[in-house]
Design a protein that fits this description.
By secondary structure, this protein is α+β, with helices and mostly antiparallel strands. Helix content is about 35%, strand content about 30%. It is built from ten helices and 13 strands. Strands 1, 2, 3, 4, 5, 6, 7, 8, 9, 10, 11, 12 and 13 form a 13-stranded mixed β-sheet that branches. The longest helix has 19 residues.
Length: about 350
């Protein structure tokens, strides 16, 4: 009834369980190839817990991360995740969650942090505390694409200035994209959560070519913006994006997203998820930009849970004592001890 799969050895069995869920819940964020990409720390494993009873299935994909020699914590891989199920039966969900909790306790997991999926709304499949984090946006691809006057003017401006959008191979152009992305993150002074090295993008590239696309905005032979998108029917996800701030033309990102939406429609996707802003603020500039393009808004929830309170408190106290500067900045986060000076 309860099984645990490791992405490095159980990928096929994991996918067989994932295939039992409704199509929207078979999202790429739950695929072992995707989850294992983010197992950066030594000993971290892409993991999937499954509870089954008859035809009912509850599935949860995550990163199992060691801390020291005997303790672990759990975190969603980059993007969205959390448990999914093909059943809305409260009794079944409760049994699944209880079995999962028993496993956590037996493994020495001290805490869990989940980024839940705003399109699937899978907070109903857990019993831990859930809180609203921010608004996200999407474009309904089942109807004719249409944008407001301001957006249409920006599209015309980028086109008039010679910006072209091309779909290119991620494997062949991974270094170009990484250089653009890395420079962009440095310009923005982005949090370490958003920083990824060349090796990561090289590992990601084959998955992009198989289950997504890399779009480049090119002007006079130079990349002025680019975006990696991932596709998992019925969704297209706006995943990574970067711009050359010195060379970009106003309207370039609008043009890129218009092309992505059009390609998403041709692929049979029903919704293009743009995500949210850089912060949780409703006046966040990136969120306002996405709202100017979207047809729908969603609520992104997170879940925090302490599994072993005494062990967790001891870890956090030791971390705060050793890292006072980091504690001031990250002490409010449930996995705060992951941030080191």
């Amino acid at each position: 009834m309860f099984e645990v799969f490791d992405a490095s050895r159980d990928g096929e069995a994991w996918r067989e369980k994932l295939a039992k869920l409704p199509p929207p819940a078979r999202d790429i964020y739950g695929d072992p190839a995707y989850v294992s990409l983010f197992a950066f720390e030594p000993g971290t494993r892409g993991t999937c817990a499954v509870f089954e009873q008859g035809e009912q299935v509850w599935l949860h994909a995550f990163l199992l991360q060691p801390y020291g020699e005997e303790l672990y914590d759990i975190e969603t891989a980059y993007g969205y995740g959390g448990p999914w199920s093909n059943s809305d039966d409260p009794a079944f969900i409760s049994r699944a969650y209880a079995a999962y909790t028993d496993w956590l306790e037996s493994q020495g997991v001290i805490a869990e942090f989940l980024r839940l999926h705003p399109l699937i709304r899978n907070e109903q499949y857990i019993e831990s505390e859930v809180e609203r984090d921010r608004t996200t946006c999407s474009i309904d691809l089942t109807r004719e694409l249409g944008f407001g006057v301001k957006v249409r003017n920006m599209l015309k401006r980028a086109t008039k200035d010679g910006v072209l959008v091309e779909q290119v191979s991620a494997v062949e152009h991974v270094d170009t994209f990484h250089a653009l992305y890395d420079a962009n993150m440095k310009t923005l002074d982005a949090d370490s959560f958003y920083r990824f090295d060349r090796a990561f993008f090289q590992a990601l590239a084959p998955l992009v070519d198989q289950r997504g696309m890399l779009l480049a905005c090119i002007r006079d032979g130079r990349w002025v913006a680019a975006s990696i998108l991932l596709q998992s029917s019925p969704y297209l996800h706006y995943f990574f994006s970067a711009s050359d701030y010195e060379a970009r033309v106003p309207g370039t990102t609008n043009l890129l997203l218009q092309e992505a939406a059009s390609l998403g429609q041709s692929m049979g996707c029903e919704r293009f998820h743009l995500g949210g802003g850089r912060t949780a603020a409703e006046d966040d500039s990136l969120l306002l930009f996405k709202k100017s393009l979207c047809t729908d808004e969603h609520v992104f929830h997170i879940s925090k849970r302490v599994v072993h309170p005494e062990r967790y408190a001891a870890v956090c106290d030791a971390w705060r004592a050793a890292n006072p500067r980091m504690a001031e900045r990250y002490g409010h986060r449930i996995l705060c001890y992951r941030y080191l000076s």
